[in-house]
Amino acid sequence: MQTELTTLAANQTEQETFFESRYATSPTEVKGMNTDQLRQNFLIENLFVADQFRWVLSFFDRYLTGGIMPIDGTVALTAPDQLKAAYFLERRELGIINVGGQGRVVADGIAYDLDYKEALYIGQGTQSILFSSNDADAPAKFYLNSTPATKNYPTRKVSRADADVVELGTLGTSNHRTINKLIVNSVLPTCQLQMGMTELKTGSVWNTMPAHTHDRRMEVYFYFEVPENQAVCHFMGQPQETRHIWMQNEQAVISPNWSIHSGAGTSNYTFIWGMAGENLDYSDMDFCAITDLK
């Protein structure tokens, strides 16, 4: 639902921000990394802390991965000092997918109500962005992706009904899944950000298999709906020399453009993929034969 507001929330909470930068790495560097080093460079563990914006900036395409879980009223998105911007979206665009309870985002005075698994795209140049939860006991969890942008495109909510939906894989190969393209150019215009959500069917555990790379885009995966006491093993690296990172529920992982990005869980799960780069062609992939992976 979209509503125009004449006044902003009176109970606005003083926002707190965590910000971390991570340098880009080459395949040669990654070959020499141990488990802790892989996790320090690519794994994003804590995205949802009460009333605190959590941001990790990857120098791969200057991709920002973040989260906000509003509890005590309304929190306002401000530009961290590291962006050197007057406001957060001065030179950026923003994608939001709610993975928690019902919540609201107010963008330049227009309110958008987001239910579970609904998305919102906010265009470059939007100056005021506010986040709130409908119920503090069941708070919204807004998963955030942001990329540099040079043009303003209209802010738009994307419900599950609006998604471009594709079904892939089979139960026989343990990868029967539904791909929901939410913030992609077949649904709405963006500068470079693309986001979607892949849901694995019961009995399936493999995502993005056969694996692929794409030189013109990097990617971030956010795993959620991972059952308690279960985990996902995320695979990365060059096809001929792969690495893995074990991940828990509501964690994200950075995938360089030269790396595969695939995973297998001890149960079925859901993940959000976000991409940025110099093209918006979803099908631009260099596939790797399963038997060629090493």
TrEMBL record:
Pathway: Glycan metabolism; pectin degradation; 2-dehydro-3-deoxy-D-gluconate from pectin: step 4/5
Cleavable signal peptide: none
Binding site for Zn(2+): 212, 214, 219, 261
EC main group: isomerase
Gene Ontology MF terms in the entry: 4-deoxy-L-threo-5-hexosulose-uronate ketol-isomerase activity; zinc ion binding
Cofactor: Zn(2+)
Reaction catalysed by this enzyme: 5-dehydro-4-deoxy-D-glucuronate = 3-deoxy-D-glycero-2,5-hexodiulosonate
EC number, as in UniProt: 5.3.1.17
SUPFAM superfamilies: RmlC-like cupins (SSF51182)
Record bears the keyword Metal-binding: yes
Binding note for cofactor: Binds 1 zinc ion per subunit.
PANTHER family with a match to the protein in the record: 4-DEOXY-L-THREO-5-HEXOSULOSE-URONATE KETOL-ISOMERASE
Family: Belongs to the KduI family.
Protein's UniProt name: 4-deoxy-L-threo-5-hexosulose-uronate ketol-isomerase
